[in-house]
Design brief:
Elements (H helix, E strand, L loop, with lengths): L2 H7 L11 E5 L2 E4 L4 E4 L2 H4 L8 H11 L12 H12 L5 E5 L2 H16 L8 E5 L8 H6 L16 E4 L4 H8 L4 E6 L2 E2 L5 E2 L2 H13 L3 E5 L23 E4 L10 E5 L1 H4 L15 H14 L4 H22 L3 E7 L2 E6 L3 H10 L2 E2 L1 E3 L3 E4 L7 H16 L1
Helix pairs in contact: 3-10, 4-10, 11-13, 12-13
């Protein structure tokens, strides 16, 4: 299949090029022409255990031969087990499964608005922040502050407001103007340019939300599940939310999202208030148990922290050599290189040389390798990145 085939058959929502990817193993992807790519994008932070992980493949065959789908009119063992593990390893009391990050954020917004109505019928406003990204369906898109995602799809859902990132004074001014049901934020913004939340800013939001009966939602769709070197990004700050949204690596490559909730904010949710046909299907949840089991295993997160520190160190060395690099940002294995030049061009050059990276906002290049990455992999990636910068 060529690019002309893609243009012939598909809605033009992605700029894709090159030979189709046909196989993956560990840190590498292979296209139809046989070319190998060192994957430092991990399917946009999905492939936490790399490609064709042996335990994932084993569980895929086992569960796939037993049961793929029965709908949420019934329960399955893998669904119960994954919910149990998520609650065991987080602040949460209850879990809702869906299919994606945008669905998780839609559900969290709905749950927060229903919870807030016990205080006032006018308490439905939602606050998010500059450079955030929460998804592309209408509620999640309305919570996404980046206007270029809105163009052509207006009007957005009413009741959504945006405050400057890490600016407490401006945020308080907006919060005082309306009756808010929820504050939603990514503790580490990924699509928006790899921007880490300020700890004092986050603590102030937690205190304000508690005082004013506002649901605090952390979107950890990209920064959760071990990506930052801790199981959840919020652990870096010692501040837990009322709800947390998850997806990307959770299903081991199969679509799976989740909302992890405190009892108090979902006690009013009743059968029929929300639902999903495919969310939490037996296969996705079985793979989710494998992924969560490995990430929480002995030494795994320490290795993420160690390799993340090493990658940060090597990229910082390049910054001293290439003035085009303005800043290195992020936590663990979610790092961003902000450049003054053409980020998309650098990403393209890296792909030509066999390294897959992902562009973010503000001329930022994301390094999102599978969490199994080694120093040897990092050395090879940095060498290719250096070559692209020199060109």
């Amino acid at each position: 299949m060529t690019k002309s085939d893609y243009n012939k058959y598909f809605v033009n929502t992605f700029s894709r090029s090159g030979s189709p990817i046909v196989k993956g193993k560990g840190m590498y992807l292979i296209d139809a022409s046989g070319k190998k790519f060192l994957d430092f994008g991990a399917g946009i932070a999905v492939s936490a255990l790399g490609h064709a992980d042996s335990l994932i493949v084993k569980e895929l065959k086992k569960q796939g031969s037993n049961l793929l789908h029965i709908s949420n009119l019934y329960i399955t063992p893998s669904q119960i087990e994954l919910a149990r593990l998520l609650i065991k390893h987080s602040f949460g009391d209850k879990v809702f499964f869906c299919n994606s990050g945008t669905e998780a954020n839609e559900g969290a917004i709905k749950f927060a608005r229903k919870w807030a109505r016990q205080y006032s019928d006018k308490k439905y406003h939602i606050l998010s922040f500059s450079d955030c990204f929460h998804g592309r369906t209408y509620g999640a898109l309305s919570a996404t502050s980046q206007e270029h995602y809105h163009h052509g799809f207006e009007p957005m859902v009413p009741g959504f407001h945006y405050a400057p990132w890490n600016n407490l004074k401006a945020t308080r001014t907006i919060l005082d103007q309306h009756e808010f049901a929820a504050i939603i934020l990514e503790p580490l913004q990924a699509e928006g340019g790899v921007n880490v939340v300020d700890g004092e800013f986050l603590r102030s939001l937690r205190d304000y939300a508690r005082e004013h009966h506002i649901c605090l939602i952390f979107d950890e769709v990209q920064c959760g599940m071990g990506r930052t070197g801790k199981l959840w990004c919020y652990e870096h700050f010692g501040i837990a939310p009322d709800m947390m949204t998850l997806a990307k690596p959770l299903g081991g490559g199969i679509p799976l999202g989740a909302i992890v909730c405190r009892d108090a904010v979902v006690e009013g949710v009743m059968p029929g208030d929300h639902g999903t046909t495919f969310g939490g299907n037996p296969l996705a949840c079985a793979l989710g148990c494998v992924v969560l089991g490995q990430i929480t295993g002995k030494g795994f997160l320490k290795n993420v922290r160690d390799t993340g520190k090493y990658l940060f160190q090597e990229l910082t060395a390049l910054k001293k050599k290439f003035p085009v690099i303005e800043e290195i940002r992020g936590l663990g294995l979610l790092l961003g290189v902000r450049v003054s030049g053409d980020a998309a061009g650098i990403v393209a050059k890296c792909k030509e040389s066999g390294l897959l990276l992902i562009k973010a906002e503000h001329n930022t290049i994301r390094f999102l390798p599978p969490l199994i990455v080694t120093r040897k992999d990092i050395d090879r990636a940095v060498k290719i990145f250096e070559k692209a910068l020199s060109q």
